[in-house]
Amino acid sequence: MEPFILASQSPRRQMLLTWADVPFEVIVSDSDETFPANMDLDEVPVFIAKNKAEAVHEKIKLGYPQHINKHIVAADTIVVLEGSVLGKPANKSEAIASLTALSGKTHRVITGVVLIYHGKEYTFSETTLVTFNLLTLDQIEYYVENYKPYDKAGGYAIQEWIGVVGIQSIQGDFYNVMGLPVSKLLQKLKQLEEA
């Protein structure tokens, strides 16, 4: 597989691609992660990922001529509970509030992926349903205190303690919940390379 540019500073996305033995380099660029208030929530992660991909594409054109022919992969993951997006908590109290809201309920984790491949944009998304057990306040506080999940959508990471202890079931791609549906991404890249 041709090496590509990952437009993400997420250590989890980088780890997943490393596990898959996929060659990549990381280039990130600041991009707006807001979205229109009336946008269908299923479209939000692709919209944000597209902003990331296009920002990195511009950055490469301006300052990284050696990467101009490399493909770009960008992704964004959101957690949707009862019609609302649970973002990254800014502090301990927000993280506790997010996990309290998720406790005993099923939510959707949606990751949008954007590929810029030979100058053309390709997009897709993946949805996984995650159901939490009823969590005690002690469990929630322990997790937030010890794992500080402030850079994670919904205030949790499935691969950490809270996932092992607190998650009852998942329906769909586990790695999507970590931040990247790797299998689907690799299938798409393979299709494009063979086309």
Which value, in Å, is the CA radius of gyration? 17 Å
CATH class: Alpha Beta
Count the strands? Answer: 7
Cα distance spanning the termini: 14 Å
Low-confidence stretches: none
Q: Element order, helices and strands?
A: EHEHEEHEEHHEHH
Specify the structural class: alpha/beta
CATH topology-level name: Maf protein
What percentage of residues falls in helices of 4 or more residues?
25-40%
Please outline the helices and strands.
Elements: E1 4-6, H1 11-19, E2 24-26, H2 44-63, E3 71-81, E4 84-86, H3 92-102, E5 106-117, E6 120-132, H4 137-147, H5 161-166, E7 167-171, H6 174-178, H7 182-194
Parallel strand pairs: 1-2, 1-3
Antiparallel strand pairs: 3-4, 3-5, 5-6, 6-7
